[in-house]
Amino acid sequence: MKTTQRISLHGGHSGQYCNHAKDLLEDIILRYIELGFTKVGITEHVPPINDHFLYPDEKALNLTADDLQKRFQDYFTNLKNLKIKYSSKIKIFVGMETESYADYIHQIKNLISRFQPDYIVGSNHHIDGDCFDYSKTDYDKIASNCGSYEAMYERYFDLQYEMIKTVKPFVVGHFDLIRIYDENYKKRFLLPQIAQKIERNLNLINSLNLVMDFNLRPFAKGGKEPYITGSILKRAKEMGIRVIPGDDSHGVHEVGCHIDKAIEILKALGFDTQWPDPRLLT
Ligand SMILES: [Zn+2]
Ligand SMILES: [Zn+2]
């Protein structure tokens, strides 16, 4: 029987390229090597299209979209160098995590042709241009703009459907992130109008042969289960969708955290733990 390798296909955010992360990218890579990873995907956030989409922490530092475009270029240069430097110890996949605000498709296509990443993590952190995962206050405001929490969930899964169809990311990032500040998410996911959209998105993921991120960030914040939640995870298994851990690390201290636990959960549910190499699909 082949042994299961530790892996993360979503994470490695570093203080060099992300204001809500810590530490040098090289130190993060060294930590993956120290923990025995033979393969890892690093997926820094893409820069905003314009100043409107700067995160509050970026605005507080007076950064501009232009600054972040330049910083993103440095990220690719640095990571591609590190990939070569440590190639005898670890196989690094140079990735990026998308956003999904207005006009993002054009931006993502540009970034792909410019930087030729090894693969993409497709994520949604916005509802119609407003970021919902930064704070509970913003989250509640967006829900009230949408009319209800249920309506916000529905909108999220519609936007995710569009993103998956057009970006075709190798990894679909934290599929059910919309539950981030909602204690009643388990019940919410079972409501027919929401469950039907979840099922539709899973079918699309399956037909495109994409991978789902088993995202361990909730554990770092004291949560009880990763994205994706148990009920959706079970459905993914029934459909034969592959699920791969992502530590979503934002600093050396988070590298590889809970990966062994994630692998145990996936194994117990009968998922294949021989991980495919990520690649570009568009
Ligand atoms: Zn981040
Ligand atoms: Zn994310």
How would you describe the overall organization of this protein?
- The protein is an alpha/beta fold.
- It has one domain (25-268): Alpha-Beta Barrel (TIM Barrel), CATH 3.20.20.140.
- The protein is 44% helix and 12% strand.
- The chain has helices spanning 25-34, 56-60, 65-85, 104-115, 136-146, 149-167, 185-190, 192-207, 217-220, 230-239, 259-268; strands spanning 39-45, 91-97, 119-122, 126-127, 130-131, 171-172, 211-215, 242-246.
- It has a six-stranded parallel β-sheet.
- Strand 4 (126-127) and strand 5 form a beta hairpin.
- Helix 5 (136-146) crosses helix 6 (149-167) and helix 8 (192-207) packs across helix 10.
- The protein is globular, with a radius of gyration of 18 Å.
- 42% of the residues are buried.
- Residues 97, 123, 125, 173-174 line the site of one zinc ion (ZN).
Structural class, please?
alpha/beta
- Main sheet: strands, sense, barrel: 6 strands, parallel
What separation lies between the terminal Cα atoms? 34 Å
Cα-based radius of gyration, to the nearest Å: 18 Å
Distinct ligands, ions and cofactors found in the model: zinc ion
Strand order of the largest sheet: 1-2-3-6-7-8
Stated plainly, the CATH topology is called TIM Barrel
